[in-house]
Prior knowledge:
Layout: H1 2-16, H2 19-37, H3 46-73, H4 77-83, H5 89-118, H6 125-152, H7 155-172, H8 184-190, H9 194-206, H10 214-242
Amino acid sequence: MRLVLLHARFGTLELLRLPAYLVPTLGFPTLFFAIFVAPHVDRTEAPLAMALFAGFAVLGVAFFQFGVGIATERQSPWERYLRTLPLAPGTRFAGRILSALAFGSASAVVLIGTALAITSVALDSGRWLQLAAALLLGAIPFALLGIALGYLTSPRAALPIANVLYLGLSYAGGLWTTPEELPRRIAAISTYLPTRALADALLAAVTPQPTSVRPWLILLGYTAFFAAAALWGYRRDEGQRYS
């Protein structure tokens, strides 16, 4: 556990020294929300929009901190050095996930603070706790997807692929609108996407609708799948570069 925390700490400190990463990651989802969403929601819709865009914010951290970041780091001498140390892939993955949860939480807090300032969001303390738990737990499979993307793509391909996945999954999963508002054909696909499961979990946290285990079972299945893909990508990259 100590190695996991150290890895998370140094990864977080490294990114904090990069304003070119920090500012867009924390600011883009909030800017999107403030310009295109906040002016058009009423008191009933504001908590739903806030919750969904907080998920959108967390998703961006997963794709760009890992998908792009890892693909770039793989070329560095520091990464080559780390591969010589007796660190299990699970230790590195866990450290990266903790770092992602820290940045994802910061991005979500900026967005939620903006929503509180410019919309009529009002939730009781229990709903806030449920929303926080849904965001933190729901971020884990996407952090693993980002790790898999980082190890399976080249540095040049990582950014466009991350953008396509980030925007495509966000829209098709219902993070920009409620899932019920999606076009019929997109909605048929949406049911099977991890972002739709995240959207359903977030909406359940801020509305009085009965809580369902289905979104969490879907997210758990994707967590296992993305973890396997991340481990395979890590081993594949290790075999290509260090065998």
